[in-house]
Amino acid sequence: MHRMSIRGFTLVELLVVVLILGVLAFIAVPRLGQSSTTAKINACKTNVALLNSQIELYYASTASWPAALTTITGDVNYFPDGTPQCPFGTAYSYSTSSHRVAGHSH
Question: Is this model's pTM higher than 0.85 or not?
Answer without folding.
Answer: no
